[in-house]
Amino acid sequence: MNSNLIDKITAWEPRAVWTEGGDGMFTVPADGFHDLAGRLRADGFDFLRSLTGMDWGEAGFGVVYHLEATATGENVVLRTLTEERGHPVLPSVCDLWKAAELNEREVFDYFGIRFLNHPDMRRLFLRDDWVGYPLRKEYDPEQNPLRMSNEVSKDSSPTYELQPDGSYIRKRNVLFEEDEYVINVGPQHPATHGVLRFRVSLEGEIIKKLDVHCGYIHRGIEKMCEELTYPQTLALTDRLDYLGAAQNRHALCMCIEKGLGVEVSERVQYIRTIMDELQRIDSHLLFFACLCMDMGALTAFFYGFRDREKVLDILEQTTGGRLIQTYNTIGGVQADIHPDFVRKTREFIAYMRPRLREYHEVFTGNVIAQERLKGTGVLTRADAVSFGATGGTGRASGWACDVRKRHPYAVYDKVDFEEVLFSEGDCFARYMVRMREIEQSMNIIEQLIDNIPEGEYQLKMKPVIRIPEGSYYAAVEGSRGEFGVFIESRGDKFPYRMKFRSTGLPLVSCLETIARGTKIADLIAIGGTLDYVVPDIDR
């Protein structure tokens, strides 16, 4: 990390302790953390990349924060903790970064850490009557029998306020008043793109408030990873954002390889880059098809699915999978590319370019699509950064947030491609970013497909992999934004903590800001253009 930044932080908070292990991080006392975080925010660290709850055993509970200054690209990692295990309390930073609001609720849900001055300290995923906190090290799953009763939705939420004497009191914030007209959208609704539920307060057709309920899947993937060896954890990433399976796994492999100090062959870097871009095309074609279906354009829906099948055929021939791409491995890839891979990829790109023009004729230029998408659901650049809404959503608001440009990996520094940016921040801009990104992905593949170097596709790795003690973070540009992997290692053959930076949680967290004041029918278009995938949220 930049030595000037280290000096600056230690000057602001003399009690901050810098440790070198892994990526390196500052440990900041809880009573001085909010002040330091505020100084960093004012100094340009406007992007909260990741917020990770931690159980450090006897040392206590805490949180690890990854921050980035979007203007300079500088990154810093902070942690703060409390030794109190009975009722752990830490300061909230949701007044500094809007992304913290749902992330802190997630930490409360899984670790029981209460955040002072957070406006809504409800569980985010689990039922209110859930016993215990699942990501604590001592958690006993036997204390939660299967409950078949309905969960009652509450119209208020607890909040904890710090008092001048250092104590804190519990208050309640009202979510919905008794006289408000509140309807459910989802969870069994095709346009919520998975089991996601919105409680929406309406005044006529206009949305006044929106409350999101994310917890209907409960994968428990991060908890399972703590008992799996590093190679075993790879299988779980494909089941998060299943439309970016190759990209997710690429991020995890990169993070493990970073910890090991391993550099894969140039051939592997080329293959991984091409696979990531094919996966992006696959995902964006499904985005196009589903958005069209949500808005009633069934012809375009069939076009999108027809052409996505061609990408899946190419992937299947090499990886053996269509949805679940168990292809990237630690130190390489599972198998070399199929003999027909290069030819079929070239043929697909030649086929796809005129099809894209047809999409624009059928849907993009359609007067109904334009009327419903243009000017609807506007997200400002400042809000996109504050919520951490990366990917096509952030770029549609004018934020150049592409990980491939910000922190190049694989061979993205060797290819020429445009980071597609729009400034409108509306549904139409989010749609157009993804349609243009299909073209850019094809451009990237064309530059690489005939130049894949010779070499080995898999390094010889030790039978038991142990990452040196420390904390590591690696990220890729997934189909929906930054997909990050955080690993804390104690030098064992399994991670002490593994956290996946969801691409979808920031997109859902900004939904109320975007939807407030729009019509109920617009909610479907807004959700469709945000393009979240629910299993990636409820990990």
UniProtKB/TrEMBL annotation:
Segments of this protein annotated with the region Disordered: 142-161
Composition-biased stretches, type Polar residues, lie in 146-160
Indicate how the chain sits in the lipid bilayer.
Answer: Peripheral membrane protein
Q: Which InterPro entries match?
A: NADH_Q_OxRdtase_suD (IPR001135), NADH_quin_OxRdtase_su_C/D-like (IPR037232), NADH_UbQ_OxRdtase_30kDa_su (IPR001268), NDH1_su_D/H (IPR022885), NiFe-Hase_large (IPR029014)
Q: Which reaction does it catalyse?
A: a quinone + NADH + 5 H(+)(in) = a quinol + NAD(+) + 4 H(+)(out)
What are the residue boundaries of the NADH-quinone oxidoreductase subunit D domain, all occurrences included? 294-461, 464-539
Q: What is its EC number?
A: 7.1.1.-
GO MF term list = NAD binding; NADH dehydrogenase (quinone) (non-electrogenic) activity; NADH dehydrogenase (ubiquinone) activity; quinone binding
Alphabetical UniProt keywords: Cell membrane, Membrane, Multifunctional enzyme, NAD, Quinone, Translocase, Transport
Q: Which GO terms describe its cellular component?
A: plasma membrane
The main location is membrane
Query: By its UniProt entry, which Pfam families does this protein fall under?
Result: Complex1_30kDa, Complex1_49kDa
Where it sits in the cell: the answer is: Cell inner membrane; Cell membrane
Is the Translocase keyword given for this protein? yes
- Residue ranges of domain NADH:ubiquinone oxidoreductase 30kDa subunit in the record: 27-143
Main EC class the enzyme belongs to: translocase
The UniProt subunit note reads as follows: NDH-1 is composed of 13 different subunits. Subunits NuoB, CD, E, F, and G constitute the peripheral sector of the complex. NDH-1 is composed of 14 different subunits. Subunits NuoB, C, D, E, F, and G constitute the peripheral sector of the complex.
- Which PANTHER family does UniProt cross-reference here? NADH DEHYDROGENASE [UBIQUINONE] IRON-SULFUR PROTEIN 2, MITOCHONDRIAL, NADH-UBIQUINONE OXIDOREDUCTASE 49 KDA SUBUNIT
Family, similarity comment: Belongs to the complex I 49 kDa subunit family. In the C-terminal section; belongs to the complex I 49 kDa subunit family.
Function in brief: NDH-1 shuttles electrons from NADH, via FMN and iron-sulfur (Fe-S) centers, to quinones in the respiratory chain. The immediate electron acceptor for the enzyme in this species is believed to be a menaquinone. Couples the redox reaction to proton translocation (for every two electrons transferred, four hydrogen ions are translocated across the cytoplasmic membrane), and thus conserves the redox energy in a proton gradient.
Q: What is this protein called?
A: NADH-quinone oxidoreductase subunit D
